[in-house]
Design a protein that fits this description.
Oligomer: single chain
Number of helices: 17
Shape: globular
Distance between the termini: 15 Å
Structural class: mainly alpha
Length: about 325
């Protein structure tokens, strides 16, 4: 079922993906080859292109008929890539998409400055849309994502992190970017206020579900599927919903074991498997899936105001695949 859904989506968006890939290469154009090399290390390393796809499909759903949507939509891939370059350094990560992170190859300064270049290039493309609202969205996303990262950094290693704080962090770190891509597509299409709101609602709910599903993968996937070491969030002191929910429900003895693991940065495969058994015992995995499913349902409900269309069908499939994916 999962593979069938994935293949259906890939077939439906194949032409859009080709246009996105071409636009990403055509618009990178730094004068310094090193910038292209560093940016390309992550930019062309197998990203799913979900964010530019969301802008293209949202624009199409709202009636946009020009063939230049991909050129504008890649601003969200440049922005996303910039944040990954910065995040890997902040998180002391070693692997991204199955490859060594950029700063371990070219150094911290070069990785940060390349991220800055991509942020600037995203801004340039936003200006080219001639839609001030899109530039404002880009600015707001950058502010929110920065604060989300700072919030997460401040709470790193804190076993008292609440579910409410976790939700605020993932909203700012992940969901606002997807929301902005969807809303920008509607703005590009000169959509009505109601249509803009619908796309904004779809994007924020999809983003919340996407991050919850991503956090689940740290516990239920494997390194090859995930493209990074399983348990990476836990090793970095990032406590996500499966852990938070289980800790809140655990008895005193098991809560102590969970907190002991939370305080470690290095642990064996056996210890991690033992933690997973506790997450199953106290329902943290199932609870996270249930929460993510609720956000998916809200995302799909936001599409109901639009007439049936191929773009709407693909957006609904993307929401469903958020829960089904294994990488």
């Amino acid at each position: 079922m999962t593979e069938n859904l994935k293949q259906a989506i890939l077939t439906a968006v194949a032409e859009d993906i080709d246009e996105i890939e071409k636009a990403l290469g055509d618009n990178l154009t730094p004068y310094l080859d090193k910038v292209r090399e560093i940016a390309g290390h992550i930019l062309f390393s197998g990203g799913k292109r979900i964010r530019p796809l969301l802008m293209i499909l949202s624009a199409r759903l709202c009636g946009y008929q020009k063939n230049d949507a991909a050129t504008f939509a890649i601003l969200f891939e440049y922005l996303h890539t910039a944040t990954l370059l910065h995040d890997d350094l902040v998180d002391y990560a070693s692997v991204r998409r199955g490859k060594p992170v950029a700063n371990t190859i070219w150094g911290n300064a070069s990785a940060v400055l390349t991220g800055d270049f991509l942020l600037a290039r995203a801004s340039s493309l936003a200006v080219k849309t001639e839609k001030m609202e899109i530039l404002e969205i880009l600015a707001r996303i950058t502010e929110d994502m920065s604060q989300g990262e700072l919030h997460q950094l401040a709470k790193k290693g804190d076993p008292e992190l609440s579910e409410a704080e976790y939700l605020q962090i993932i909203r700012n770190k992940t969901a606002v970017l997807m929301q902005g891509a969807c809303l920008s597509g509607a703005i590009l299409a000169d959509a009505s206020p109601a249509e803009k709101q619908a796309m904004s609602d779809y994007g924020i709910n999809l983003g919340m579900a996407f991050q919850m599903a991503d956090d689940l993968l740290d516990y239920v996937s494997d390194s090859e599927q995930l493209g990074k070491a399983v348990g990476a969030d836990l090793r970095e002191g990032k406590f996500t919903l499966p852990l938070i929910a289980s800790l809140a429900r655990a008895d005193e003895r098991d809560a102590g074991q969970i907190k002991e693991m939370m305080n470690k940065r290095e642990f064996s495969t056996e210890a991690f498997q033992a933690l997973n058994r506790l997450l199953d015992k106290y329902g943290g995995i199932d609870y996270t899936r249930t929460c993510a499913a609720a956000y998916v349902a809200r995302a799909k409900a936001a599409l109901s105001m639009f007439k049936p269309s191929t773009a709407g069908d693909i957006l609904a499939m993307l929401a469903d695949y958020t829960l089904a994916r294994n990488s």
